[in-house]
From TrEMBL, chains A, B:
Organism: Aequorivita aquimaris
Keywords, sorted A to Z: Aminoacyl-tRNA synthetase, ATP-binding, Cytoplasm, Ligase, Nucleotide-binding, Protein biosynthesis
Localisation: Cytoplasm
Gene behind the chain: hisS
Residue sites binding L-histidine per the record: D102, L103, T104, R132, Q146, D150, R296, Y300, Y301
Name of this protein: Histidine--tRNA ligase
Amino acid sequence: MSKKPSIPKGTRDFNPEEVTRRNYIFNVIKETFALYGFQPIETPSFENSETLMGKYGEEGDRLIFKILNSGDFLSKVDDKLYSEKDSNKITTKISEKALRYDLTVPFARYVVQHQNQITFPFKRYQIQPVWRADRPQKGRFREFFQCDADVVGSTSLWQEVEFVQLYDAVFTKLGLKDVTIKINNRKILSGIAETIGAEDKLIDFTVALDKLDKIGEDGVKKEMREKSISEDALQKLQPLFSFKGSNDEKLNALSEMLKTSELGMKGVEELEFIAKTIEKLGLQTASLQIDVTLARGLNYYTGAIFEVSAPAEVNMGSIGGGGRYDDLTGIFGMPNISGVGISFGLDRIYLVLEELNLFPKTVSENSKALFINFGNKEALYAMEAITNLRNAGIKAELYPDDTKMGKQMGYADKRNIPFTVLAGEKEMEAQQYTLKDMKSGAQSSVSYSELEKMLAQ
Amino acid sequence: MSKKPSIPKGTRDFNPEEVTRRNYIFNVIKETFALYGFQPIETPSFENSETLMGKYGEEGDRLIFKILNSGDFLSKVDDKLYSEKDSNKITTKISEKALRYDLTVPFARYVVQHQNQITFPFKRYQIQPVWRADRPQKGRFREFFQCDADVVGSTSLWQEVEFVQLYDAVFTKLGLKDVTIKINNRKILSGIAETIGAEDKLIDFTVALDKLDKIGEDGVKKEMREKSISEDALQKLQPLFSFKGSNDEKLNALSEMLKTSELGMKGVEELEFIAKTIEKLGLQTASLQIDVTLARGLNYYTGAIFEVSAPAEVNMGSIGGGGRYDDLTGIFGMPNISGVGISFGLDRIYLVLEELNLFPKTVSENSKALFINFGNKEALYAMEAITNLRNAGIKAELYPDDTKMGKQMGYADKRNIPFTVLAGEKEMEAQQYTLKDMKSGAQSSVSYSELEKMLAQ
């Protein structure tokens, strides 16, 4: 093979710095999940195809990566079907497994399969890769990690309150201030549709409303008219286009607008509980903002809907989202289990932290010191010190070969190792080590215990 | 879907306890890798098929999971080929990607692809799942994690020395004492083959010798005779069957046996350097043992060969292995890069720690306290305390619903949460909390700061 090897489009190699930074984000999220009582589960990378197919719509089915059966897979395809040469029809005959498309359906499958071992309400988190045969483009990959936390088995709104706190806690720890947690409620959207007499057009109406940010009031109205939403209905919608002010003011306006809709008022009541409780408990750095245009994932959310926006100074869009769904496990024959969950958008959070220079300098798995190799006798002396340093939890390494000093120093330099240690015959005799600060160039002669003390800092 | 959902055979769900225990092992290994100067990389779960195919032998090619192309994949198969209905021939036409089979080939691909960004010697570790379409059986899975550390770009034996130390450090931290690190050298095996005049039968001869533990001296000799190894050769081999004693004694016997083989003597010299250096540096709990029957992965190892055995009291076999290879990246057009690496067998280490009851009790992501929910007013009082506890790094949670106390207590019990906190009207008035130890049943009335102090322990 003479051409340079490559990886499939839409996938990525991660170098040490990238892995370390990604793990830093994962660890902050994991620690916070655990602080909030969530416990980790993991599911297989591939599921039986029947578990995944039909759960994400037609487009989703197309984007699921299917795994070819092993062995003589064509022998199971009957000749008549084979002669049609129809990719769609043959797929289920030659492929029985598929790569995970998200963490939600495998979680639902897990809950149903292990229901007798699970203590409900079940608070689980899951951080694993998912795969989608999407057209790769900037910021969209065919393999990426999802970070989800969900509770199933309780309808309590305290969980929504905790998820708002959890978002605040994670982004505060990451140093990402001024994050906006937007919240809406499916019942409010249904209530509005009811009030304006467009119940049958709920999806069209919310899809259009969701674009207010992007296409403005006139654009939204144009799209609604195209979907045959009446002028009378648009008239009634007017207050939404100038929906401003504090959460309290918005709640008042919504109460006024939705007073004839029982469902709508239920949504207002839920939103009010969450907003007022968060006001009493306080948030550290994030703010909670009612946004009635938010319609994310409306097809399955039934209560609260969340979306987190990065600080306005970075142009990144949503870095997290979630909501309440009332029948997650119904698809696997276990109906009426209410759940609520949120997720973090790792790749975007990474880009935001990078852009704002928020990764701590100490996020590094790098060695603290490189011992220069002057030959086997000196290397043994060095290795004795290195062994002791490692036992003390200090990252140190020996350059493996006794090559030219310049090459060894160059290695320390390129690897950004902050100190080198030189120990030749003279140092061995005096039971000393020469410690060199690679940045300042300063050198000092130290005993082992001084060495350990200086490198431990 | 009415039948209970399931997962593909050979795959596993991991519940919170299992994930936590697996992460405990991973973390010990990762921390130790970092202490030794290794840095993490990650590669995509699937590679271009041409990267993987042909690298693991015919059997390996068969066991690689192939991913079906998306869209109308049959349209790219010409009618003539299609009409043959030959699974083998059609595979490369309908599948261009395949799941990672191990971490070694993707690592070689990574090194070649990114050679201009890498500082050599390159010390990397990688902990990711791999997939094999093997027949599932006890302890053998179709998806499992590999934990590998390798150095490429140096032939220095100090690296072998460090890997012995690294094994010792990891197993010592895991509390797994009396692990045996067996070491051999490909050059010694080649030297023996040379000495007995069976150079052309090196593989047959070492495959047979490797079974000494299992089938005994007579079994090995029988197999060698079947492979047409001469009686004269068997005669010369005799010392190997009673190869006992200290590493020093074994080295002396090998020197005697291999004195006419230059290559063999080079192997003895290498083994001697590693064994003597380890003797000087000392190991914490493991022992290093020369084992000339060890032939693991002989097809690609060219120098040292390692294998780690669990303590004799558990019947588990190898829990780690590795060795030196001289041409890892040659398959991708970058020749003469020497490397040496080791890996840890996570699943087996897990079983050993479980059998010996070595998982620390504190390995748990579990909440420290469950606050009982007496209704919204009381829950707010509880949530204020919970918020403060979480800010102090203490895991705590509120039962989401104000259901019967028995049910809430039962939840704490089943989840093994050690404390419950009760705060009703009386406690709220007194600004107190009733803390209940779920094991002893003891209750005490405490202030918030006392509560935090007690739960922090």
